[in-house]
Amino acid sequence: MSDPKSEKPSILYVDDESINLRSFNSLFRRDYKIHQAISAKEGLEILKQIAIQVVIADQRMPEMTGAEFLKQVAAEFPETIRFILTG
Question: Is CB count within 10 Å lower at the N or C end of the chain?
Answer without folding.
Answer: N
